[in-house]
């Protein structure tokens, strides 16, 4: 048996959007179950995101610490951001986020992994890139605002991040998935065997 997620869509009898926000919305679908019953399913509709595990030549990861109001914590994260434009190329979005949040550019880009963050209640899909060959970006730094104005930047060794994840000290989804995927890729076929940066992404199709 091949272990692989597959597309499937159950019948929807009715749908409503009771809330529309600036970037996301909430949708209610009446979904037909296998036994014929119809149930309500509420979920957040999300444009999708990208995240970047930027690895320098000293085996350190570029991380940032940012306040996240829903969980009332400052979390260590990797650079990430929304796919603001429908059909936006995720590589271009990731390069933009790395520049804006860390003022860094990278020469080598690969797809590290693709995930649904909370598929039981949100359709957000995230593509996590591995970026290597880092250097400081040219030009002036991006002007941050709101929560980002309080951001802290650091470069932390991979081993230290792994220990933090397994100790329950680090909780950001993209950081946890990205760091553990990096370690798994190294012990598997190696980082150069990762998918190319423009690999297809069925969850969020884009123009190459």
Automatic annotation (TrEMBL):
The keyword Hydrolase applies. It comes from the Bacteria. Keywords: Hydrolase. Pfam families: NUDIX. Coiled coil: none annotated. GO terms for molecular function: hydrolase activity. Residues 44-178 form the Nudix hydrolase domain. InterPro entries: NUDIX_hydrolase-like_dom_sf, NUDIX_hydrolase_dom. PROSITE patterns: NUDIX (PS51462). PANTHER family: ADP-RIBOSE PYROPHOSPHATASE (PTHR11839:SF31), UDP/ADP-SUGAR PYROPHOSPHATASE (PTHR11839). This is NUDIX hydrolase.
């Amino acid at each position: 048996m091949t272990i692989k997620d597959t597309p499937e869509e159950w019948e929807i009898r009715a749908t409503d959007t009771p809330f529309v926000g600036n970037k996301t919305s909430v949708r209610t679908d009446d979904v037909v179950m296998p036994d014929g019953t119809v149930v309500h399913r509420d979920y957040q509709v999300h444009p999708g995101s990208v995240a970047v595990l930027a690895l320098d030549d000293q085996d350190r990861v570029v991380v940032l610490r940012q306040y996240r109001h829903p969980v009332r914590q400052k979390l260590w994260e990797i650079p990430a951001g929304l796919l603001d434009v429908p059909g936006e190329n995720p590589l271009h979005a990731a390069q933009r986020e790395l520049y804006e949040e860390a003022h860094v550019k990278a020469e080598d880009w690969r797809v590290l992994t693709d995930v649904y963050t909370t598929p039981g209640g949100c359709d957000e899909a995230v593509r996590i890139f591995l970026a290597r060959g880092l250097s400081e970006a040219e030009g002036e730094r991006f002007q941050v605002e709101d929560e980002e104005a309080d951001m802290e930047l650091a470069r932390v060794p991979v081993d230290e991040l792994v220990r933090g994840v397994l100790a329950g000290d680090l909780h950001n989804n993209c950081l946890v998935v990205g760091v553990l995927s990096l370690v798994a890729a190294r012990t598997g076929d190696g980082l150069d065997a990762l998918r190319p940066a423009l690999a297809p992404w069925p969850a969020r199709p884009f123009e190459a």
